Fold:
Amino acid sequence: MCTYTTEKIEITGSGKGAQGWFTLTDATVYFDHPVHAMAEHTLNVDFRNPAHGPAARVAVELTAESARTLVAAIEAALAAVPAALAS
Amino acid sequence: MSEDLTASTITITGAGGDPVEAYLAVPDDGATTRGSVVVIHHMPGYDSSTKEIARKFAANGYAALMPNLYYRQAPGASPDDAAAVARADGGVSDEQVVGDVGGAADYLRAVPGSNGKVGVIGYCSGGRQSFLVACSLQFDAAVDCYGACIVNPPPDGFPLKVTAIAGLAPDLSCPLLGLFGAEDKYPTPDETAELSKVLDNLGKPHEFHTYDGAGHAFFAVDRPAYRPAAANDGWQKIFDFYGRYLAS
Structure:
């Protein structure tokens, strides 16, 4: 089904899209039909900067297992450095 | 049948009088009169695969028009970027969908050669929207391909902005063809059976088919959900249905 479920967050950082690097301000996270991945549903993240238009987007579509593995890897990477660096 | 056609991007008048991009596919078959179909794209947007569906209708003798339901949010954007913007903005309202699809139907009725009969078809979220517009506007035939949230509201915990709309069934303006997968969870076979019962009780003409071995999105040739046997039979049923209700 189309889940419509969407988590929206504000972020600070940069991403590289079709037009090169740009500043990221927002991310949307949702579990729904992918555009490209060969799965019925995927965990999708759009890293965005709406002020720069719809194409200012870095999109990823991950299987649920891959998404959970990525979350664990991110947490592990953050935990592996001194807290002062990752604050 | 030559299957010759012409396809192009046009601008129609949608909800609130707004200009809306739309994809028009018209047969080049020499026919002097023909029926028409409004194609409602799925949630991933106004994409190549749904434009291919519009061309399939034209190749089979129908003028077909697909409005870009995300045009307002992202004019000129690629379909996937536009869908991402629409999602981030909370989707499009049922009211806007009815207005945009109504604008498409009005356009088709005015196309030279139109016999005045217009059908509608939608897939996935568009399946629900096909039922919605058929209950809100005058159509001659409607097809719902695995639309969820018609009978049952969204599951608990899902922040869906859509609501169940089976209560609109008394206003269904035309015969309804429903094509579903037995393995689909949204909608489940129980849910589509319930909708069939509602329509039976109202005396609304409809025919529902549920395919074994198929789940959601079994028509989607570019997705792993594609089930050729179900899709091929479904297309035959669609053209038989439209042949009965949209023919000149």
Remarks:
- DSSP finds one helix and four strands in chain A.
- Strands of chain A lie at 7-17, 20-32, 42-48, 57-62.
- Chain A has a mean pLDDT of 92.
- The first strand of chain A starts at residue 7 and ends at 17.
